[in-house]
Amino acid sequence: MADSGTMTAAMTGPRGPKPKRAFNRTNIMIYGTLIVVALYYALPLYVMIVTSLKGLPEIQMGNIFAPPMEITFEPWVKAWAQACTGINCDGLSRGFWNSVRILIPSLIISVAVASVNGYALSMWKFKGSEVFFGILMIGAFIPYQIMLYPIVILLREAGLYGSLTGLVLVHVAFGMPINTLLFRNYFASIPEELFKAARVDGAGFWAIFFRIMLPMSLPIFVVSLIIQVTGIWNDFLFGVTYISSPDRYPMTVQLNNIVNSVQGVKEYNVNMAATLLTGLVPLVIYFASGKLFVRGIAAGAVKG
Amino acid sequence: MALSDASDVTAQVGQGTPARKPTRIFKNLSSKIASLPMVFTALVIFVGGTVWTIVYSFTSSGLLPRLKWVGLDQYERLWSSRKWMVSIENLAVYGICSLILTLVIGFTLAALLDRKVRGEGMLRTIFLYPFALSFIVTGLVWQWILNPQLGLQNVVRGMGWESFAFDPMNNSKIVMFGLLIAGLWQGTGLIMCIMLAGLRGIDEDIWKAARVDGIGTVKTYIRVIIPMMRPVFVTSLVLIGSGIVKLYDLVVAQTSGGPGISSQVPAMYVMTSMFGGQNLGQGFAASTMMLVTVVIILVPWAILEFGGKKRG
Amino acid sequence: MKLTTKLMAFSAIVSASSASAVELEVMHWWTSGGEAAAVGKFAEAWDASGNKWIDGAIAGGGDTARPIMVSRIIGGDPPAAFQFNHGRQAEELIEAGLLLDLTDVAEAEGWADIVNPPNLLDACTVDGRIYCAPVNIHSWQWMWLSNGAYEKAGLPVPTNWTEFSESAGALQDAGITPLAMGGQSWQQNGAFGVISVALAGTEAWLAVNRDKSVDAVMSDEYTRVFEAFGAARSLSEGLNVQDWNQATAAVINDTAGAQIMGDWAQGEFALAGEVAGEDYSCLPGLGEVGVLQTGGDAFYFPVVDDAEITAGQKELAALLLSPPVQVSFNSAKGSLPVRGDVDLTTVNECTQKGLDLLAAGATLPAGETLLSPDTVTQLNDLMTEFWNTPSMTAAEVQSAYADIIADAD
């Protein structure tokens, strides 16, 4: 998978007509639009970053766009290592590894299951497969909070309530609708000749999946990875409901405790720092996954 | 490696015999076994959970789910609640705007990024990063930015446009658009990403052919590329649609449903009933109505979209 | 899971053989600075008794924490103790037999004699059995006034609601928002409750909230309340904030004249270095009716199979109400102790006013001990709509209010 990915990346560049000059009208329009839009996206981030670097008195002066007069990293230190969650004052660091332990199995299993689902649904339909898919699609629209109690009952009956296994299964189940759809529709757009040819060649379900489909679907794996990393990493409700011991709570429980106290002083700078810190893991994934965003793999394969 | 295998296969077969579809039960056994987790999830979690929810919507369950039947009482109360009516109206306004704008912005950004832009990685990450941030705090930041005394209005007035007024958070007529600004900010990045992945799957030759035929870039996108990306648009529609129906965190963080009840949404009605009012039955009745609406919209479309046998 | 069970069984054996230390997981939603410090007092006392406190803090208030606590109970793996507002929120759990009966602890410790006001214990009692341990008193009946704002406007600080209403115009002329009000519905309904006790009097209030009397809602006393609340709407114009403490901040920095908010607001004044009587004033019962609604928090203890944990739960319940713990906890949290026989370490002018009212027995049960959470939610929605819709008339709201009370159980 990896070597074919890099190979294809080298083979094919970005698409579209080649740009002729650096500063033609089209280019100015493209860059102009992108920069303006980027400003809209970056503005709240900018506010968060400058706020996280200010002291509380400066924040209360009320100019949210002003850069900090005196830069302080205190809020970041506090968010990571000192902020109190009830009586435990060790900040976000307390739940970091718990979150990692939840993320990795949930991520691997949910993406694996969803990609196989999508593959089976697009290439190997069987009687009733569309019905199950339809149910999943409707499931995508159910607010998950409604399922809180039925799932508690299910997990209790299965003897999995409170365990990591139970939580991982819940993440897999709730990630399934969107990700299955994602893979199904992607595989459906892969040229049919490829599949037929492989069948004629005697390749079976798994052989076609691993040797043909997987290497051709890097971009969609990236999208699925992005959705799942974000969803699982930021999950608060499932983590805190289906894990029954505070020692194993994910980091979002600490994040929630830092930013969401109802009564008492709001330390806006620490809130911002904690949010940005929590967002770092998905951010790293977004950035790193960019390399996998390659084009034209499917096309390359067909042309041979 | 896989690639060369695949091309070998293609080469061997050439234009030859079309393969027969694996229709027999035993032939498709691997597929069925591989689909077991999906079947289990669909039946046990989604069907099971939904049936459970519907059953309990006919009870007077409060803090705990209990089978004390009250018939249609919960539904009568639901439909006589002004908050619920406001919620539905708001969702319709927000939903239509969000659906159209997210698709347009998402696709446009993806298309622009796909035109050999320098710093694509950086820009893509900027567009996507809002998706990674918890809404409890980003809602607060938008509250600040849209606050007339702290945010945009103040800055624009400071630049000399004294009469500029923009205060969506405190005007019940336009508060949903204040939410929309933040919702688009958070959600368009992912749609852009999915569109980009779709664009990257389209054959380079299409572009060459379009250029040979003298079709302009924009026209090529509209006439050729978008129809080819139909599955990607379907994925995006479901993703955006489910996000709209489930809209909750953003509202809580930004407006708490206010001013008054003017930015209430159905999911918030459900959550407030279930966990604030400790009236599970009422929350389940509301969520059942949401589900019924989704099914009414989704099923005919799904039959059209997926029911037909396009390929085996 | 299995491993943890084994480990727990193992540690239970070890601890049983040593000093019978019990590990208890306690869930609560006290996470802000002062609150966390207060919980720390409980934990210290519990650890000092040779046991171990496992802290399960979930921020976001009851709406966030309650479903998690209920899930744990439904899932069959409950925490050893959890915090609820005392009131009708836990009613169903008690009826379902999921909570530990603390009557023997209460009798041994003589709670019936020491808990003041007695209605706190009533809120824990179902069919004569006691199911919770009240730990503090918070009351809604306060108006906080900025002395600085009144000085700026050249007015004396009002001593009751009538004077306050009369002074509002002059404050607005001086560019000061008379009444700071946050945008969340519970704040607006809470303020309405305070105004109704102050203007309609305790009897009418009890008739509405305890006896669910529709006639009382439609009475002249209450008409006056709805009109006053409607008139107050214009007093908060110009200050748009969501959170209650942003509204308090406006009083602290003298841009707003006053705020109606519970006694927890005093923590904000203290943090800002303000002194009661000098920088700010307080009017319990809006200066009209000197009475406090006594709400607050209580701990509940789910039923578990383990006899050792049950013993620990009862030990903890007794500890929470013991005099030193009551003093240290409530001093840190800024609330009032549930027993009248202890003295807080530091008492300012406002806290003293509250203590005096408690000692005089001028108390009312909290709204949440009389109304179900469902009714409270409906009232929140109605009052927030009233507050934010200038075109809604007091009469309209009054009849809608009567409908909700008629349906209340």
From TrEMBL, chain A:
The ABC transmembrane type-1 domain, residue ranges = 96-289
Tagged with keyword Transmembrane: yes
Give the domain of life: Bacteria
Q: What cellular-component terms does GO give this entry?
A: plasma membrane
Q: Tell me the Pfam families matching this sequence.
A: BPD_transp_1
Record's keyword terms, sorted: Membrane, Transmembrane, Transmembrane helix, Transport
Gene Ontology biological process terms in this record: transmembrane transport
Bilayer-crossing residues are 28-49, 102-124, 131-152, 158-182, 203-227, 270-288
Q: Where in or outside the cell?
A: Cell membrane
Recorded topology in the membrane: Multi-pass membrane protein
- Similarity remark: Belongs to the binding-protein-dependent transport system permease family.
Q: What is this protein called?
A: Glucose/mannose transport system permease protein
Q: What is the scientific name of the source organism?
A: Yoonia maritima
The root-end lineage is: Bacteria, Pseudomonadati, Pseudomonadota, Alphaproteobacteria, Rhodobacterales
Automatic annotation (TrEMBL), chain B:
User: Could you confirm whether the keyword Nucleotide-binding appears in this record?
Assistant: no
Membrane topology, as annotated: Multi-pass membrane protein
User: What InterPro entries is this protein classified in?
Assistant: ABC_transporter_permease (IPR051393), MetI-like (IPR000515), MetI-like_sf (IPR035906)
Keywords (alphabetical) are: Cell membrane, Membrane, Transmembrane, Transmembrane helix, Transport
- Return the Gene3D superfamilies for the record: MetI-like (1.10.3720.10)
Q: Where in the cell is it found?
A: Cell membrane
- Does Cell inner membrane count among this protein's keywords? no
Q: Which residues form the ABC transmembrane type-1 domain?
A: 88-301
Q: Which GO terms describe its cellular component?
A: plasma membrane
Q: Which superkingdom?
A: Bacteria
Indicate the transmembrane segments per the record. Answer: 33-58, 91-113, 125-145, 174-199, 220-245, 284-304
**Which GO terms are recorded in the biological process aspect for this UniProt protein?**
transmembrane transport
Q: Which SUPFAM superfamilies match?
A: MetI-like (SSF161098)
A Pfam family annotated for this UniProt entry? BPD_transp_1
Similarity-based family: Belongs to the binding-protein-dependent transport system permease family.
- This protein is called what? Glucose/mannose transport system permease protein
UniProtKB/TrEMBL annotation, chain C:
Biological role stated in the UniProt entry: Part of a binding-protein-dependent transport system for a sugar.
* SUPFAM superfamilies attached to this UniProt entry: Periplasmic binding protein-like II
Keywords in alphabetical order, please. Signal, Transport
Q: Which Gene3D superfamilies match?
A: Periplasmic binding protein-like II
Per the UniProt entry, what species is this protein from, by scientific name? Yoonia maritima
What is this protein's name?
Probable sugar-binding periplasmic protein
Q: Where in the cell is it found?
A: Periplasm
Q: Which residues form the signal peptide?
A: 1-21
